[in-house]
Structure formats: structure tokens, C-alpha cells
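Good morning N.,

You mentioned wanting to compare the apo and holo forms, so I went ahead and generated the holo version with iron/sulfur cluster. This is what I fed in:
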Amino acid sequence: MAKEKWYKDGLKFACTQCGNCCSGDPGYVWATKDEIRKISEFLGRDDGWLAKKHLRRVGLRYSLTEKKDGDCIFLTRDGESVGCSIYPVRPMQCRTWPFWTENLKSKSAWDTLSETLCPGMNQGNKHDFVQIELTRKQRTW
Ligand code: SF4
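and this is what came out, ligand included:
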């Protein structure tokens, strides 16, 4: 019998829009060719692709770029307020945060992230187990 997941009773999460998950240490925001095409269309380009300042190749994959200060290239800041300039077409990686397999591997992994990176975790509305698992396993949108 499969072992019960530690989050079987659901988890609280409500984004506070602090922007921490879109900034900080260097990392990758993976985008598929289909997602790149959607972002390109959203930006009004007619070539279905993105400029070098927005997209880089990493091996066989593509990642959005970052600004020098570590912010995602599409993160916007206006005083205290942060936003995403491609929010309606943001990649799956951004859509499914924080319900990633690595974040859910243990309660301590989840709580550590909640305390060190994402103040929205363990706050706000409860997401039930089915919702969490659908999000965790989602691969296309
Ligand atoms: S770190 Fe968490 S609370 Fe902050 S913007 Fe990202 S998801 Fe929202």
C-alpha cells in the first residue's frame, strides 16, 4: 500500500506578492517551446520566439533570463509593489509554485521554505490534497 503523504490533510498557501520566488539566487525558469511561443505572442512579437535578453539556452532546454540583481527578467517593481509582466502566460514552473515535488518531499522541507523564502506558505486558504497533487503533477496548461 502506498505510504500516506504528510500533507494528506492539505496545506495553506496564499501568495503575499513579495516577489521572493522570482528573485534572489541565480536559477532557472524553464520554458517549453509552446510556452515561449505564448509569451512571444503576449509580447506582440510575430516570430514566436523571445529576444536574447529574455531567453537563454541551457543544454537542450530554455530558461528565462535574470537581471543583474537576480530578479526574473519579467519581474516588475514599483515601490513596494511587485508584479509579473507576463503573468497570464507565465511558465508552468511559476504556475505550480510552491507545490513542487521537491518542496513537498517532507514537512521540514516545506516549513524551511516557508520560513526562509515564501511567506505565503502556511498562510491563507487551505488547498486540499487533490488540488495539491493535481498542481504538483501538472505539466501543461
Ligand atoms: S515567495 Fe511566496 S508569497 Fe512571495 S511572491 Fe512568491 S509565492 Fe508569493
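The CA atoms of residues 102 and 109 lie 8 Å apart.

Happy to go through it together on a call whenever suits you.

Best,
F.
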